[in-house]
Amino acid sequence: MAANYWLSSQRACALQPSDFHTSHAKDLESGLAWRQINQLYQYFFKYMTAMGCVARKDGAPLLRRRVVSTAALYFRWFYADDGFAGADPRALSLAALFLASKVEEMPVHAKGLMHTATTLGSSGRWHAPAALAAVLAAEAQLVAKVNVALLVFDPIPSLLEGLTAAGLQANQAVTRTAWALLNDSYLSRCHLLHPPHTIALACIVLAAGAHGIDIEEWVAGLQADHAQVYEVGRSLLGTLAECSATITPDTCLRYLALLRLPVSP
């Protein structure tokens, strides 16, 4: 990942809320509702997370958390313009993982990725994977779309530094909650809108509040955009409130059928 957010292409490509006003116009015209669009985002993020949990070699994970989070950001970036009607997310989710593994210098072999996807599909909890040719074609689309923002900044260093600075690093309950919130933040679009350190700070504030710990004085002393921190916190809580049980593979396929996606290679 990039060493400095302020020098990264991620900052240059940050979006504004108004950019999403027409982002899924084609999906909506095809018959999907916003609730269903959000369910698809949730489904495919959890699918990529499941890929990261299952993909292993010699007992070690092939797709580490950093790869999955980068892939999730690529996935969101790609669909920010034209929505799911622009490309089949079954192929693009795997393409995002494949590309992120290379960008993060933790490359996986395409056949190994497809083997893991096939294993997940056979479990019945997830859809059957797209063909390898479709995944490689989707990767080319993805590179063309987000090539200026391939290097992204990881919010984890800011989370760890913030927990230490706030004197919370030894509080396991708060630390676990902050990590969980950061992981869940990829269910939302906040990473397209806000700096990573702002997201990390919002997770710390929410985690401390959840366990009844007052860190207002510490937060007030920070040179941070407090309005943005509040907005991220509000967005995360709203996303978590909306997240219900993950839709089934059949429901996912039914939603995608409405889009009349191009036939895969």
Write a short abstract of this structure:
This protein is mostly helical.
Give the topology.
Layout: H1 9-12, H2 25-29, H3 34-54, E1 56-57, E2 60-61, H4 65-82, H5 89-103, H6 110-122, H7 132-146, H8 156-165, H9 172-184, H10 190-193, H11 196-210, H12 216-220, H13 226-242, H14 249-257
Antiparallel strand pairs: 1-2
Helix tally equals 14
Q: What is the C-level CATH assignment of the largest domain?
A: Mainly Alpha
CATH superfamily heading of the largest domain: Cyclin-like
- What structural category arises from helix and sheet content? mainly alpha
Please indicate the percent range of residues in DSSP E strands (runs of 2 or more): under 5%
Distance between the termini: 31 Å
Question: How many β-strand runs?
Answer: 2
Outline type:
globular
* Mean pLDDT level: 89
Biggest sheet: strands, sense, closure? 2 strands, antiparallel
The parts where pLDDT drops under 50 for at least 5 residues are: none
Element order, helices and strands? Answer: HHHEEHHHHHHHHHHH
Under the CATH scheme, the architecture of the largest domain is Orthogonal Bundle
- Biggest sheet strand order reads 1-2
Q: How many domain regions?
A: 2
- State the helicity in percent bands: 55-70%
Question: Radius of gyration, rounded?
Answer: 18 Å
CATH topology call of the largest domain: Cyclin A, domain 1
